[in-house]
Amino acid sequence: MATGASGDATTVDGAVGSPGAxxxxxxxxxxxxxxxxxxxxxxxxFSPTGLIGxxxxxxxxLGPSLMPRSPLYQGAIAGACAAIGYGVGALVGWGGRxxxxxxxxxxERRVLVRRTCAALAVVVVVWALLVDADWQARSRELLDMGAxxxxxxxxxxxxxxxxxxxxxxxxxxxxxxxxxxxxLTGRLLPPVVARLVAVLVVGVATFLLLDGTIVAxxxxxxxxxxxxLDKETYEGDEPxxxxxxxxxxxxxxxxxxxxxxxxxxxxxxxxxxxxxxxxAAVGLDREVREPVRVYAGLDSHTELDDLAELVVDELDRxxxxxxxxxxxVTTTGTGWVDPASAAAIELLWGGDTAIAAMQYSYLPxxxxxxxxxxxxxxxxxxxxxxxxxxxxxxxxxxRPALYAFGISLGSFGSQGAFASLPDVVARTDGAVWxxxxxxxxxxxxxxxERDPGSREIHPVLDEGRTARWGVALxxxxxxxxxxxxxxWQRPRVVYLQHASDGVTWWSTDLLLERPDWLREERGEDxxxxxxWFPVATFFRVGIDLFVAGxxxxxxxxxxxxxxxxxWAAVAPPPGWAPAATTVLRAALDxxxxxxxxxx
Length: 599
Known about the structure:
The chain is built from 19 helices and 11 strands. The chain is 49% helix and 9% strand. A hairpin with a 5-residue loop joins strand 2 and strand 3. The radius of gyration is 31 Å and the shape is elongated. It has helices spanning 28-44, 48-61, 71-98, 107-142, 152-185, 191-230, 259-267, 272-281, 304-317, 339-348, 365-370, 375-392, 409-415, 421-427, 441-448, 502-505, 536-544, 562-570, 578-588; strands at 2-3, 9-10, 16-17, 292-296, 325-330, 353-358, 401-407, 430-434, 467-474, 478-481, 492-496. The chain is of the alpha/beta class. The strands form 2 sheets. An 8-stranded mixed β-sheet has the order 4-6-5-7-8-11-9-10, sandwiched between helices. A 3-stranded antiparallel β-sheet has the order 1-2-3, with no helix packed on it.
């Protein structure tokens, strides 16, 4: 300590104080230095190769894909991908050190390299966020979804960093447990064997914990949550009084047994007045009838065959065999019947229709999509075969035309009732399938057998003789049914699909193989800068699965006006003209709960 001219005590950094006073606290510069040192020590604890892996996966997760995503969803995905990248990178670095791959740099050079990498990391993060903001804005404009929120990059980054750190810390906790177990077993076993045993023990225990506690607990929560939800009724839905509906007073399927989606199905649809208005608008002078809608819910039976027989009994009770058209619908996971498709066929025929459906689950489609896929095709077969058996007993000239329909998981299930396209032709009068998942065997087979020169998103099969694909809804000309050179014969099959629908285009093949739809010109509602990268595209399109149902009509996994074109082509009533399809399409554009998200 030095003494100033006035005799006051002066500290070494120039601060003035009184003799005998307590030393002053740390300066701002000192606090900043200590904080910087602490951050440097914390940063040094991370694996350099792990951080490189995290950076690569973070940037990959933000690259262009089929559907726009909310900031929270994108941030969560980016954080999870960064954590996975860190783990892979750290494992690679560990393996390299084990075989002697280590940079022979002095400490000063290592510090310089770390600082350079940190600066590059900042550049890459900013670049990835800007790329994300750019393609999200352009994709939202393309799909008429409005502009993204201005604070999107900050929200994405904040959530990604927090989630990635939490996941990495959890992984480090497991590593600490492995080390503790290795120390215990090391008292009895050689070090290498002890570490191997520790990894196996902790790995098996973690798997059992996840599978037996977290996964099973999660499924129990989903089951109880959606089971309780299934017992609720949408606001405004009332038990029908007309005997042509299940759930009516004389029905064999009680209102309370139908489930939430079943109750919505039998309570909804166009009424006689709406059917009359449409008939008048298209110039058809015909008798309008109350449409038949029959449904069986899981509260009636638990066995699929019993549910299917109840549906047939309901068809008998309502004298549905007297109608001109009978559509067998395989529902989505929750038992949902797409109201736009149902309304389309009923408006098309003036209510001279019957629609039959049954519930096989009350869990959302995505649960079955990533888990058990056996129930939808089993339900599709059970229902179609039961209806077809009864229908086959009737005189060919005194029974309704028989059609099949399904959307999303329901399309997968409905096609499960048929062995091939000739089987569809032999046992139906036609089919409409929308948003077919890419793992559906029949759809995949027909797409792969398309004529040379036709695109994967716009297939032409056998010159368009039997099956045609409807794509790219436009407000002025509807869904374009891709034609071939041959005459379109009957029965007809229509596949509705959108280029931006991840449900249709996701496949495990994306891991290592570029699909044709990414070799060809991009679809009408897909950005041209969507490209294939090994592994990355598999995850990007997989991410799109969970937001495809939130797209506006005509994009992603949402179908509305396309049903007018599809059903008019597959099942046109007498006197139906092409101009009438435009009127029908406009009628379907009226507000309806058509979102498949969560169903």
